[in-house]
Write a structure and sequence with these properties.
Layout: H1 3-13, H2 29-33, H3 40-57, H4 81-84, H5 87-90, H6 96-106, H7 115-124, H8 127-136, H9 138-145, H10 167-172, H11 175-188, H12 190-200, H13 206-218, H14 228-234, H15 240-251, H16 257-269, E1 270-273, H17 277-282, E2 286-289, H18 296-301, H19 310-320, H20 323-330, H21 334-343, H22 347-359, H23 367-378, H24 386-393, H25 398-410, H26 414-422, H27 430-444, H28 462-474, H29 491-519
Helix pairs in contact: 1-3, 6-8, 6-29, 11-12, 11-13, 13-15, 14-15, 16-19, 16-20, 19-22, 21-23, 22-23, 22-24, 23-24, 24-26, 25-26, 26-28, 27-28, 28-29
């Protein structure tokens, strides 16, 4: 028994019942016996402390774990210092995604010193912002991401090189973990993600099914049309939420059987009355509606509730059918389809379907024309139509967008300006950027604080604040600057505009530096 165990045994018995041990014949015996205190208890504790310290200090170190394999060789050259000098100031800036895009386009990677900070930033960013970041982190960035669970967004541990999901990792993951694994698989191997969904969706619990379909919704592409049989089968899922997700995804497919059923129902309802010579001259069409008998089970499977009025059924169908399918099945022009919707007060329902079709990134098949035709009917219809007007302004055709923007800027219509600019890819044309900057100066010139947006008669509102935020990253860096604020302008207004101009100048310098390095 070693010295520490002897002392511990005495402590368990107690100094009142046992004699204080006197170690002998051990390397530590002399040192322990030299430790004395005023009483036996204190002496025992002091000697135990010395023996414990000697035990810890005398332990041999644990074998070192094996070193990880070194990072693979880089395939991209490191970005030159002229462009990376901006990075320390961009890590918490809205301009960082633009720098990453420029770096990715140039075929460069970031210096290793910035990898931890950028990996942290990527863990908070959305998938769109991560796309250029993935390209510039290089081989060392991907290697480094394997050492932290916070960086798993870059390389999910459940994936193999072949783009397959590791069954053990998937089985051990939580609902959120499975969503993250599937999201990474979608980004790295879309074909494999579809194959995985076909075999795995039905086997998952309802929470996971909702999460997987939500990821599919966010990352939808035309190639995902191959999932139509699975989505059709999901219309009878045990969860009504999952059923609704499947219907919305099927609505995105113009050629889906779901859209064909919906359009056929609307076509069976619609009739048309003859018009007089004046109506024929002006292109007027008088539509009528009837409500055919349809088995309730068929309606329920497609998410349609029983109704008593034909107009109510039409509004249901307008909201859940791809507008391009309505145009072709009903043989209507965009203006005529909008006329049908207006006649039966279905503008809001049709606008929701148009927005869903165009915001999914699918090829336009007349939907933009429907959006253009809807805008005049949604404008000036009160607060209930305002969100739908904003949706349409975000997806109208380029020609309509330009005309509406000019009208909105001249009329100081901040909400319309914001909705139209949100659908305009950056960078905005220089002349348009200049007009937006002039309107921002006009709106903010009297604002004394951000709380001016809550004041009743203030020109500075939340929509203009949204336009300001958008202009930081979307306005042309070389846009002409408007006249400066007057000398007595509030400090808040002056500082806000100075920050905007500083961001534009920084972006101009970024583009100049990248262009200069690429020419070398």
């Amino acid at each position: 028994m070693n010295d520490l165990n002897v002392l511990l045994a005495a402590a368990m018995v107690g100094t009142a019942r046992a004699t204080l041990p006197a170690p002998a014949g051990t390397p530590l015996a002399a040192a322990l016996n030299s430790v004395t205190r005023d009483d036996a208890e204190a002496t025992l504790l002091a000697r135990a402390a010395l023996a414990g310290l000697a035990t810890r200090a005398g332990r041999r170190p644990e074998p070192a774990p094996p070193l990880p394999a070194p990072a693979p060789a880089e395939t991209r050259p490191e970005a030159p210092s002229r462009v990376t000098r901006h990075l320390p100031h961009l890590l918490d800036s809205p301009v960082l995604p633009e720098w990453l895009t420029l770096c990715a386009s140039a075929g460069w990677r970031v210096p290793p010193a910035f990898l931890p900070a950028l990996l942290d930033w990527g863990s908070r960013a959305d998938e769109e912002a991560r796309a250029p970041l993935r390209q510039v982190l290089g081989e060392r960035g991907r290697w480094l991401a394997g050492f932290s669970s916070d960086w798993r967004w870059l390389h999910a541990p459940g994936q193999t090189e072949a783009g397959r999901m590791d069954e053990a990792t998937w089985g051990d993951a939580t609902e959120a973990g499975r969503e993250a694994l599937f999201r990474t698989l979608r980004a790295d191997a879309p074909d494999a993600s579809r194959a995985f969904l076909l075999t795995q969706l039905k086997a998952e619990r309802v929470g996971v099914r909702r999460r997987l379909l939500a990821v599919l919704d966010e990352t939808w592409t035309v190639a995902d049309g191959a999932l139509e049989p699975l989505l059709e089968d999901t219309l009878t899922d045990r969860s009504e939420d999952v059923q609704g997700q499947a219907r919305r995804l099927l609505q995105r497919l113009p050629g889906s059987a779901y859209n064909a059923r919906m359009a056929a129902r609307l076509k069976a309802m619609r009739g048309e009355e003859k018009v007089g010579w004046l109506g024929r001259l002006t292109g007027q069409r008088n539509f009528t509606l009837t409500l055919p008998e349809v088995p309730e089970a068929e309606l329920k499977r497609d998410g349609l509730e029983p109704v008593k009025r034909p107009a109510t059924r039409l509004r249901q169908l307008m909201n859940v059918t791809h507008p391009g399918v309505l145009l072709s099945t009903l043989e209507l022009t965009p203006a005529e389809l909008v006329g049908l919707a207006v006649h039966f007060e279905a503008e809001r329902e049709l606008s929701g379907a148009v927005h869903a079709a165009l915001s999914s990134g699918a090829q336009d098949d007349g939907c933009a024309g429907v959006a253009d035709a809807l805008v005049p009917h949604l404008r000036g219809r009160g607060s209930s139509h305002r969100p739908h007007l904003a949706q349409m302004l975000g997806v109208v055709s380029p020609a309509c967008r330009v005309a509406e923007l000019q009208t909105a800027l001249r009329g100081h219509q901040s909400s319309s300006v914001l909705a139209l600019l949100q659908g305009l890819p950056p960078p905005w044309p220089a002349h348009l950027s200049g007009e937006v900057l002039r309107e921002l100066v006009r709106a903010i010139r009297k604002a004394e604080s951000p709380y001016a947006a809550y004041e009743k008669h203030s020109d500075w509102d939340h929509a203009w604040m949204g336009v300001l935020t958008l202009a930081q990253t979307h306005a042309a860096p070389d846009a002409p600057r408007p006249a400066p604020l007057p000398a007595d302008a509030p400090e808040y207004a002056r500082q806000t505009l100075n920050t905007l101009y500083a961001d534009l100048e920084l972006r101009a310098q970024l583009h100049a530096d990248f262009a200069a390095q690429e020419r070398r």
